[in-house]
Amino acid sequence: MATVKLWTDAEADAHPEVKAVFDDIRATRKSDFVNNFWRGLANDPAHLKRIWGQLKEIMVAESTIDPLTKEMVYIAVSVANGCSYCIHSHTAAAKAKGMTDAQHGELLSIIGLAGQTNHLVTAMQIPVDAQFEVKG
Amino acid sequence: MATVKLWTDAEADAHPEVKAVFDDIRATRKSDFVNNFWRGLANDPAHLKRIWGQLKEIMVAESTIDPLTKEMVYIAVSVANGCSYCIHSHTAAAKAKGMTDAQHGELLSIIGLAGQTNHLVTAMQIPVDAQFEVKG
Amino acid sequence: MATVKLWTDAEADAHPEVKAVFDDIRATRKSDFVNNFWRGLANDPAHLKRIWGQLKEIMVAESTIDPLTKEMVYIAVSVANGCSYCIHSHTAAAKAKGMTDAQHGELLSIIGLAGQTNHLVTAMQIPVDAQFEVKG
Amino acid sequence: MATVKLWTDAEADAHPEVKAVFDDIRATRKSDFVNNFWRGLANDPAHLKRIWGQLKEIMVAESTIDPLTKEMVYIAVSVANGCSYCIHSHTAAAKAKGMTDAQHGELLSIIGLAGQTNHLVTAMQIPVDAQFEVKG
Amino acid sequence: MATVKLWTDAEADAHPEVKAVFDDIRATRKSDFVNNFWRGLANDPAHLKRIWGQLKEIMVAESTIDPLTKEMVYIAVSVANGCSYCIHSHTAAAKAKGMTDAQHGELLSIIGLAGQTNHLVTAMQIPVDAQFEVKG
Amino acid sequence: MATVKLWTDAEADAHPEVKAVFDDIRATRKSDFVNNFWRGLANDPAHLKRIWGQLKEIMVAESTIDPLTKEMVYIAVSVANGCSYCIHSHTAAAKAKGMTDAQHGELLSIIGLAGQTNHLVTAMQIPVDAQFEVKG
Fold this sequence. Notes:
The structure is a homohexamer of 136-residue chains.
Chain A: H1 9-13, H2 16-29, H3 36-41, H4 45-60, H5 67-80, H6 84-96, H7 101-124
């Protein structure tokens, strides 16, 4: 149960700005499936457009980081933030981009280890080593 | 200022279990530098050994995820958890493993976008789409 | 499914301290509805009384921040902390205090943007500008 | 100490895309001061432009939420996320937009109370009341 | 719904490494019940073994902190991290180790108060008193 | 650098409500030292009184959880929330209440392990076992 209305296709079709974004999502992803996140954002069409625009620029466009690595980073942030929906959607996306079960298992190990050492470092309040400083 | 003592090399050398781990860190990394995290963990030699053992198995050993991607995932978790020391140390490690400025910039974009959409999804309490479910 | 018992009205009525708080919640809110949070806290009557006392002083009493803004701030904290129940209850409260759909949409934009820039600032470890310092 | 270079004005002036954003920040805020956040983002000019564009649309443009409330919400998210820099910069912004000491004090009370009840709700795993459900 | 397969007993029995860990969990806990966490970790047998090994060393072995206190600390971390499953499993474990309802109520008070003062300290950005510094 | 003024003793002495709380802190703790947290809260005397009142009831009064365990739980929450000041002040308090170095080391192990398994459970989205359900 969401705190906002999730737009149906019929509602989206009746609103040109929302329809334009949904159409672009479908065309970009070559799939008819528009997931619930976008159906919730549709309540604020300008916001929907802005978030989709960013996602397209950052996650879809060609870049110096490969698509699977991007999804792994997204999963990592979502786990640390405890965003259940995001973990589900980006794990599905990572699998669609070729993540094997072995890679998934290793990704979990890294996330778990980072969670552990983050807690240890914070509990000990370790000061940053001079060697890690960025030189102007 | 830490909440625990940070062991000097002289103190580590005088304690065989701690010395063995510090020696292995140096040999594994081919560097004389032992960063403060390990100097704090040294207060509990069994714990020091366990954490280093895990880190070596997960981050150093050959695996299906390349070393730079591992560091990017580590940075992502550390940012979402707000671990300042960890962000510094793993950003330095990622650079040492070849992360370019362009890749660093893109990594930041992904982390920022994930932070944003995590907050939006949580605020809207979006239900998980049936399509994202794992089949037994 | 909770980790504590949720008190029914019958159970609350049989316990004078709990009954007194439930009665005050109903009188203050001019509604018969007592939500599950209070039914869980009832297991520790002194704690129930303390938390309700604070909430009344901070959220209900007249103050220099208007009631709708208070709810928006509450939602913002709850989202960043990932408290699903709290997001639901305070979104409902904000709507009861007049939050329009347009305001809800803008609130979400602000929360999402703050989530994004929080992650970026943390990832870059930006030092605080001297201009932001409070003068004694 | 940041993990990225903080651009000086001279460096920004030498890069047209960065200069254009810095100029717009100064014109919009009617102040010569460009804070460190933007100097860090300047390393990725497209990202700098995107984030500033969003901030202008969400935080600066006229809307249904008043400017001071927006800053209070921003502070609330930043506190829950533990973003020290963001707390400093948005507290300064809130004061510049008229937040009184009394309002600041009350804002802190609300944020603290929300932090407390978020933890209590999560610890008790309170189920969402049917009354809080959004009707389609 | 998990993002990984949860191993049945039949599947575990067919895989010697997984079976060995499940057998040890059962023997150590003197119970036939193996909870879902281990059934998810089973997808990566080396990881399963490593995590169980740590848990046994830290949570099961004799030590200077009593078993109930250990569970209370575990609950506290899990609440602050918003890990619903972990709150359920460790609250059950604490009860099995003798936590009374009164103790549970007090534990919740402490966790709630810590959540509140953590938020207040962070919002005010209180500097650490010199008296709290660890002496070399 | 705080976002609020930290009250000196002279300022506190000149304000009866603040003085009363500072006097009680000193009498209760049998020490002249009043740490910065209270000096920041003094800006809102009613809030100062409320928070100190709670802390006294929860952390100081006799109860079913011993004083050292309370501090360990407080540290655990503060680490997971990344509250640096709180970690320093409650680690100092735990030591003052008798926490040995061995206990401190074990506390860190538990917090680190909880951080790790919290991340793993969240990443795998493990469903709660029926056995963990509270019976009404």
